[in-house]
Amino acid sequence: MEHSAKQGEHSDSRSFQVRKNYLSGGKHYAFFTLKNVSENRIGMVYELIDGLSFPVYTKLVMDRYADGKAKEVLKRIGADRSSDERLSSASNRPLKSKLEQQLRSLDTLSRRVTEGGDALFKISMTFIVSGSHPAELNSNMKRFAQAMSLLGMDLVREHVLSRRRALKLATPLKSLRAKYILDSRSVASLVPLRYEGTPSIGGVFLGVDADSEKPVFADPFQGNSYNSVIVGETGSGKSFFSKLLLMRALITGTAKSALVIDPMGEYGADLCASSSSILEEEDIVAKIPNLAVNSSFQDLTIVRQTPDILNRNSSILDEVINITDRFLRSGNGSKKIILIDEAHSYFRFARTTGYLDTIYRSSRHFNTSVISISQNLEDFTGIPEGKSMLSNSSMNFIFRNKDRQRNAISFLTSRRFGELRTDLLPGGKRDPYSECYFYSDGMLRRIRIICTAREAGIIGQS
Ligand SMILES: Nc1ncnc2c1ncn2[C@@H]1O[C@H](COP(=O)(O)OP(=O)(O)O)[C@@H](O)[C@H]1O
Ligand SMILES: [Mg+2]
User: Is 234 touching ligand 1 by the criterion CB < 6 Å?
Assistant: First the structure.
C-alpha cells in the first residue's frame, strides 16, 4: 500500500502517514517519487531542500522523446484524458476540473512542442530522506513531505521491500516506472544552472534578490545576535512575511518552536503543521497565571490580545510578559522564535519596553530569536531601549514606507547606502508579491518575497 502527500489542503500533509519499512545499514532511508506537480513553483524545490535541517538526496533522470514520438505521445495522452473527462460523472466536480486542468496543460504542452519547437522529456524524480535512527527518519520524512506538499509536488512514498528495488531507486541514471512529462521550458526550471552555491544546509528561504534573482536564505540563529526587526507601513506585507518566515522555519526545523504575540488576531494554528495552541484574550488572565512554571509549550503558541485592552487592563500586560518569559526559558535549549507583531503598541508602556530591550540582549543565551514588527524605524530610534534593540538585531527587514525615514535608516546602515526609496517598494493586497530591504551583516539587499499558492492559502486563512 502506498501513502502519498495528498494534493489539496495543508491538513492533508499533517495526516501524512509514515510506515515502518526502512532500509537499514547504519542509516535509515525513505524514498519518494514524484507523481504530480500542481504548481509552477517547481523551480523552488532545491531552495526548499537546501533549507531543510537534514540532507535530502535528489535523483533526477531525464529522457528526451524523439520529435515524432513526442507528438504521438501527447496525442495519445490527450485522447485518454478527454475520454476520461467525457465519461466522468458531472456530479464529480473535483475530478472533472482536475481532468480539465490536465487537458489545458496538455494543450499548452502540445502547442509548445508542435509550434514552438520545444522538446519533450519524460523525467523521473526520486528523493531520498535519511535519518540516523527510525524516530529521526520519521520526523525528517514528515517535514520533507509537508515542505513538498506546500510546493505543490505530489509525491508517492516508495515502500522499499527489497534491496534490489532500493538500489535501483538510489542508482544514478536508472530510470523508474513513474514518469512525468515536461517540455524543455519546465525542465529548465527544474534543473537551474547554478554558478554559485547556496548554503548547504539550514536557514529559511526568504525569496529572491531583486537585482540578481538569486535565492536568499536567512538563518536567524547564525548572527552575533539572533534577533530581527521588521518595519513598514500598514499593508506593506510585514505580517504576511513573518507568517511565511515562521511557517518555513518550523517546517524546516530551523526553529523547534515559536511564540507569537498577535494583537490583531491574524495568526492561525495552521501555520504550524505539528502542534499549536491559541490563547484568546479571556484565557490570558484566566489561564496563564495558573500555568505551571515548567509547563511545556506546543510547537506554536499564539497569544491574542487587542492593543486597546492593554490600556484598560494592565494585568494583561504582566501576563504577556509572564508567558513570554516562560517560553524563553522553556525547551531545554532548543531553538525558539518569539514573534511580536504590532510591537509599537508595547512601546507605550515602560514595563514592556524595558522587557523587550532585556530579551533582545539576553535571547542568544536562551537560543531564542526575537522578532519585533513595527511601523517605523523611528519607533525604535526614538527611544533609548529601541536603539539598543536595533543594535542587538542582526537581521532587519524594511518594507514600504511613504515617509522615507531618512534619519532612522542612516542610523541603521551608518549612512553607507545613501537614501533608500522605501516609498517605491511593492507590497499589499493589489500586488502579486512584496519586496523589502534586507539589512544584515553590513549588507543591504532588496528582496522579493515569493511563495507558493498553497503557502499563500494557509497565510490567508490564518
Ligand atoms: N508577498 C506577498 N504575496 C502575496 N500577498 C501579499 C504579500 N505580502 C502581503 N500580501 C497581502 O497584502 C496584504 C497586506 O499584508 P500584511 O502582511 O497584512 O500587511 P502589514 O502586516 O504590513 O500591515 C495582505 O492581504 C496580504 O495577503
Ligand atoms: Mg500586520
Answer: yes
Residue 259 has phi, psi (to 5 degrees) of -120, 130
Question: What SS3 class is residue 309?
Answer: helix
What are the φ/ψ torsions at residue 128 (nearest 5 degrees)?
Answer: -115, 120
Range 192-199, long-range pairs (CB < 8 A, 24+ positions)? 192/43, 192/46, 198/46, 198/47, 198/50, 199/50
- Residue pair 189/334 in contact by the 8 Å Cβ criterion: no
Q: What is the pLDDT of residues 137-149, one digit of tens each?
A: 888 988 898 888 8
Cβ neighbours of residue 394 under 8 Å, at least 6 residues apart? 220, 222, 223, 224, 225, 226, 227, 228, 440, 441
The helix or strand, by DSSP H or E, that contains position 84, with its residue range, turns out to be: helix 67-87
Instruction: Report d(CA 404, CA 421) in Å as an integer.
Output: 7
**Ligand 1 atom at minimum distance from 237 CA:** 17
Mutate which of 205, 233, 240, 446 for ligand 1 pocket (most atoms within 8 A of beta carbon): 240
Number of helices (H) and strands (E), helices first, in the chain?
16, 16
In this prediction, residue 116 carries a pLDDT of 78
Domain boundaries defined on the chain: 10-190, 204-461
Model confidence pLDDT, tens digit, residues 305-351: 876 666 666 778 888 899 999 999 999 899 999 999 999 988 888 98
Report the separation in Å between the CA atom of 205 and the middle of ligand 2, taken as the mean of its atom positions: 21
Between 19 and 328, residue with greater pLDDT: 328
Q: For the domain with range 204-461, which CATH number is right: 3.40.50.720, 3.30.1490.190, 3.40.50.300, 3.40.50.10950?
A: 3.40.50.300
Alpha helices in 254-337 (DSSP H): 281-286, 307-312, 314-329
pLDDT of 165:
66
* DSSP string covering 155-179: EEEE---SHHHHHHHHSTT---S--
